[in-house]
Amino acid sequence: MTVMTAENVAQWQALSSRIYVPLYCSEIAEDFEARVDLRIPSPFLSLTRIDTGSVHVQRSTTMAAGEDEEFVLFAIQDASSGSVSQYGRDAMLRPGDAVLYETRGAYEIDHRQPGQRELIAKIRRSAIHLPSETISANCGRLIAAGEPRLRVVSAYMEALFADTEELSLTARFEMAAVAVDLLETLLRPDGERAVPEGREQLLEQLKMFVIDSLGSPRLTVESLAAHHHLSVRTVYQLFEATGEPPGVFIRRARLRRAASLLGDASGGRRTVASIAAECGFPDPSTFTRAFRREYGVAPTAWMSEQASTG
């Protein structure tokens, strides 16, 4: 848990740009102050509770174009009212409402009313297993408090934020993954299945086989298809509707398992190389590059961070 404060808008601009992405903040009222409570349950998800005064926030097209890493921000309005605008859409928020916006595009946040309080989930875009166009189509749209799926997602994220420090490192990671899964369900159009009903069971069998076989470096799309007596093309077709190819699913499953094990290994009982091998990466350098590309941090740095916070 990390608590930070800002006594003016300039300090808030520096602080919020460090926690989220580079932003420009302008003053609306002179008596501005802000407080941030940061929790990081996993390398792909952070949660922040922010309390601020009146402020206008802007991320320009130039700012967005200059970033290599891409994130999605999911904000739940807890108190006061405000608006978030992206891609020509405006979400007017009241307590209980939520909105999604992404750092790859310009956006504006109008918090002219005092007493702002939000819970914000910052998620690596690559961790959300939905088609890119589905994510972007949801940005800047109001998700009203009366939406039943939002109530479930909000309650879960509130609980995860409140109890992160009480959870084991492995539980934090696994529950962060559940939070992202729930968000995917919220963003997917109501009633739309990830895959046609008749093929859903087969897709789940493929996924379970992958999870059970992560330790084998021989696990590939081709071996997955052969084991289930399917063509490689059919495997790709089954995974297509989930938003990621089967090879990407295998790699991310390996990395998620590794990140969970690295958290438990932060006490020094295991090495990065042994964990990499257990997750199907016989070459530690290949594993390190893949881990850094997926999570933006080296495996050793993730272990050190978990040791200091756990």
Task: Provide structural commentary.
It is a single chain. The protein is an alpha+beta fold and 310 residues long. It has 2 domains: 2-187, Jelly Rolls, CATH 2.60.120; 197-309, Arc Repressor Mutant, subunit A (Orthogonal Bundle), CATH 1.10.10.60. 45% of the residues lie in helices and 23% in strands. The protein has helices at residues 9-19, 61-65, 132-138, 148-163, 169-187, 197-212, 221-227, 232-240, 246-264, 272-278, 284-295, 299-309, and strands at 2-6, 24-27, 34-42, 45-52, 55-59, 71-79, 82-86, 89-93, 98-102, 107-111, 116-124, 142-143. A 7-stranded antiparallel beta sheet has the order 1-3-4-11-6-9-12. Strands 2-5-10-7-8 form a 5-stranded antiparallel beta sheet. The longest helix has 19 residues, at 169-187. The radius of gyration is 20 Å and the shape is globular. The model has no long low-confidence stretch (mean pLDDT 89).
Features:
5-stranded antiparallel beta sheet; 310 residues; alpha+beta; Jelly Rolls; 7-stranded antiparallel beta sheet; 2 domains; Arc Repressor Mutant, subunit A
What is the β-strand count?
12
Strand content: 15-25%
List segments where confidence is low: pLDDT < 50 over at least 5 consecutive residues: none
Order of helices and strands, N to C?
EHEEEEHEEEEEEHEHHHHHHHHH
General shape: globular
Proportion in helices: 40-55%
Characterize the biggest β-sheet: 7 strands, antiparallel
**What class, by secondary structure content?**
alpha+beta
What's the CATH architecture name of the largest domain?
Answer: Sandwich
The average pLDDT is 89
